[in-house]
């Protein structure tokens, strides 16, 4: 599940667009490549992972549970997720850049639930993988070409990459596919690329793409 593509990004200034909300950039709820730290839910939904399962999720993707210090370092550069998750040594918490009415208890920082004596409690997970930025990342450049790891060779199995493009208020993204070759199936249920025109990967769904036909250019709203 990874793209074999080159993508070209062009940001236009002074256009009607989106960027900051409530004074901060909001992250993908699934993944933010900030300091190698990212958030994971179980496939069955929010707050479904025991400590052992959370460790297994991170290790399956080549990482490990993040430490409190790693989560705080990510938070300091904008990592903001309103969902409690397991960290290393059985700790639970979540990173808040700017508190909201239902998140953060009016505080910023890592909201710390402490070390949990009951490792069967069910939360999400915060993983750390310093190599994860090779497969995804946060882009703020005026122009950027990016590609799947190992391009032009085939991508590896069981890869999930997220690219999060951050904008100043009033800018738009022009996304153009230069090369595209994924497994083809009628519903794009195997390998695919999904694009969202939003602050997260729940709203603003643009489309899901697979096969070897170049998708049309996309301009954000």
Automatic annotation (TrEMBL):
GO terms for biological process: cell adhesion. Coiled coil: none annotated. The keyword Lipid biosynthesis does not apply. Keywords: Cell adhesion, Disulfide bond, Hydrolase, Signal. Disulfide bonds join 58-127, 82-103. One of its GO terms (molecular function) is hydrolase activity. InterPro entries: C-type_lectin-like/link_sf, CTDL_fold, CUB_dom, Link_dom, Sperma_CUB_dom_sf, Spermadhesin-Link_domain. Residues 36-129 form the Link domain. Residues 135-221 form the CUB domain. The keyword Disulfide bond applies. Residues 1-17 form the signal peptide. Interacts (via Link domain) with inter-alpha-inhibitor (I-alpha-I) component bikunin. Interacts with ITIH2/HC2; this interaction is required for transesterification of the HC to hyaluronan. Interacts (via Link and CUB domains) with ITIH1. Chondroitin sulfate may be required for the stability of the complex. Interacts (via Link domain) with various C-X-C and C-C chemokines including PF4, CXCL8, CXCL11, CXCL12, CCL2, CCL7, CCL19, CCL21, and CCL27; this interaction interferes with chemokine binding to glycosaminoglycans. This is Tumor necrosis factor-inducible gene 6 protein. It comes from Daubentonia madagascariensis.
